[in-house]
Amino acid sequence: MKTLRILTGVACLIALAGLSACGGGGGSSGSGSDGKTALYTVSGQLTTPEFAVRDADVPVEGALTPGNNTDAEAQPLPNPFVVGGYVSPAAQDSGTLHFPQDTADIYRVYLHQDDSVRLDYFSALSSASPGPLSALTLEMEPEADAASGKQTDGAAGSPLKLTAQVAGYHLIRIRLNTGTTPVSYVLSLGGTGTSTAASPYGGLNFVPGEALVQFRGDVPAMRALGSGVEVIAGDTRFGFHVRQPGVVRSLSAAGDLSARLATLAWIESLRTRPDVAWAEPNYLRRAAFVPNDPLYADYQWALSESLNMASAWDRIPAPGEGAVVAVIDSGIVKSHPELAGQLVEDADMYDFVSAASLDLDETPGRDPDPSDPGDKAYGTTSSFHGTLVAGVIAALTDNARDGASVASHARIMPLRVLGKNGEGTDADIIEAIKFAAGLPNASGRLPSRPADVINLSLGQATPDTALQNAIDQVAALPDAPIIVAAAGNEATSVPFYPAAYDNVISVSALTRDNTLATYSNYGSTIDVAAPGGDTGDPILTTGAVEQGGGLYTGPFLASGTSIAAPHVSAVAAMIRAKRGSSFGPQAFRSLLADITDDLGDPLRFGAGRINADKAALKALDPDAELVSADVTRLLLGSPTDTATFTLSWPSGRTPVIDSVTPTTLNGGDWLSVEEVGTNADGSVTWRAGVKPGTELPTDTRLTGVIDIVTPNNTLRLTVNYLQTTAAIAYGDVGTVYVQLRDTQDDSRVYEVAVATQGGSPAAFSLSGIPAGTYILLASTDRDGDNVIAEDGEAVALYPVTTDPQELTMGGSLTGLSLGLSYRTPVASSAGSGIPTALA
Fold this sequence. Notes:
Blueprint: E1 3-4, E2 19-20, E3 39-47, E4 52-54, E5 59-60, E6 63-64, E7 75-76, E8 82-87, E9 92-94, E10 97-99, E11 104-111, E12 116-123, E13 135-142, E14 151-153, E15 160-163, E16 168-178, E17 183-189, E18 206-215, H1 221-225, E19 230-235, E20 239-243, H2 257-271, E21 276-283, H3 296-299, H4 301-306, H5 309-315, E22 324-329, E23 350-351, H6 385-394, E24 411-416, E25 423-424, H7 426-436, E26 453-456, H8 465-475, E27 482-486, E28 505-510, E29 528-531, E30 539-547, E31 550-558, H9 561-579, H10 585-591, E32 596-597, H11 602-605, E33 609-610, H12 612-620, E34 628-629, E35 633-636, E36 642-648, E37 659-664, E38 671-678, E39 684-690, E40 702-709, E41 714-721, E42 734-742, E43 749-756, E44 762-770, E45 772-780, E46 787-788, E47 794-797, E48 807-809, E49 813-819, E50 821-822
Parallel strand pairs: 1-46, 3-49, 4-8, 7-11, 22-24, 22-26, 23-24, 26-27, 27-28, 28-29, 35-41
Antiparallel strand pairs: 2-25, 3-44, 5-6, 8-17, 9-10, 11-16, 12-15, 12-17, 13-14, 13-16, 18-20, 18-21, 19-20, 30-31, 32-33, 34-36, 36-39, 37-40, 38-39, 40-41, 42-43, 42-45, 45-47, 45-48, 47-50
């Protein structure tokens, strides 16, 4: 039986008598018909990070599996990658455990220029005093470009980092430097080389065969019109829009490279003519604003892809300005630098936690300070759940730090209702809702102005009349706030409250691929879907964790419907800030069909995926028609593979498209796009693929974008190319130990070992389980020390690692899902790493 490290004392996850952060279980205990204790089964599947790879030589029952210790036997890796590994300076014993010698691990991977490789490492010994941590050295050497030379990072302490100077295959070597203890590590691809500078022709964004020309003043107009160019429009005062003779305009505005270069040569020839004052390409313009926050490009797919925030920011440069969003949650970490100046005045926030058994702050009972003291939701570690939620809505943006948010100019009204173990009572939540709406409440005070939006990333499966009445009372106000709630993380169609109430917008969670997250609730009560993330692609936000007697604040990665809901709350705030307080709950609900992208099944996605750009345009022009695409990301799996996307207008008429421009962000100029044709309903289908004859590396993800410019909006689709080979076992983290642990009796643990291979979900089943309350978790034990859930292991808790909940066993449970991700220690500064909210 494996020992649990991080969750010892897990009985802190007591029965959920009240509400908890996006979870809660249901069921009842009982006996069989023969009077004997009934025994049940828990089953489901494990999912692993898509690009997870296992170190080829790790301890298995004290022996080392085949090695990767020399350049000749370098283990191939995909790009991107995350590897869990092990090295040890010598064979050694610790108690009953044996750690075999493994002095080096060597990998081979194709890296793009500016790809960053990161190495986190920690002691493999599980004793209380493991001794000094052995030091590692990270080396990177390009195979084909010796001139750039070998790079080495042997600095003291974890993590180590190196950045590729050239594109091509590289050897990555992990060697022991000093020390005597065995070491576990996580090797991963950090920031990627995906800037537009990687494409030598990224700046050539103009219409091939066209130019803007001004003829000299002494040239008669009729002569200008007959000057060997085809005039499209213009006059002698402002210049002419002209077409190169014999060239047919293509809406694939990037065209092919030869057409663009030919256009530049033609324009240069025009400039040499004595009758031409100036000549310029007919440049294409699109939304120019991209925030300078360093983590935006690599981590915030939810904003750049799903919500189309770049275009929304261009329409509304100060999104949410003047709006207030009440976050009714676990409170707030006021000291977080990304929330500085983003909160309402102190008099407009409050702590409503009344029960002494739940309130962990220094002022028992309700008080004016909603600061989050930590909820100890993970035993010794807290979730700081309200801070995770607030960062999605209104973290500082374009301040060259961490990441961006949706409604960065809105203000957060933190109202604390969740205390110990992330639990809160209906009574406290009701009072907080009344406060946010400007109604008399138990605090004896009113905010200087009511909230425009209320976010409730909490709930359970049992309805409550008092809570529903409070919500209905607020919704009936003349300037009622829009109430948004998480749909729940139990992967069930059972209604989840308060999200399921009529006057609440219920939000399900999406993955990056626009599928329903495995943990997300679904059903007839879902109103809309938003990014919630998953194991491979979590959501970047603000967070905090206790560390060394203090509090670490910085960027965190999180997943869940708790994270999906604030995306919708922020979009609602952005619209209300422009439309005014009369834009209330019913107006927002009626608008959902116009500000979402249809994903199909309304029982999973409601009206569809929330689209911030559509919302921004509707906020400014309620009558505007927007072109939409049926996808946000295209996947190509081989040089001959193609993928299609369809553009349409809500009216059913053929959409007006100004340009469709493909641009590659790495791997050279490989992406092509062409129009397929107009469909019977007026929509237009396009096809993307790899340019014929292009040689591309295998097991390496390449990225391109397709920018679509229309009269009213701009769309950006992401294109990922990845040709996999049998040389790499994707999604393999090795053997995983699935445990069901009794929250009332720490000695009662049920365990099964499961092998993960090939990236396919791995099934697990635990049987002979009596009624009771349990937590479900899974972890590797890569270093073989019989302790799981340590730093460096792949770990999962049900239903979401960043928001674990207990299971109440009153019958067998099937179809559960555990998403594994690597656990790394919290970095000492925001710039040196992004922990998950569990860390």
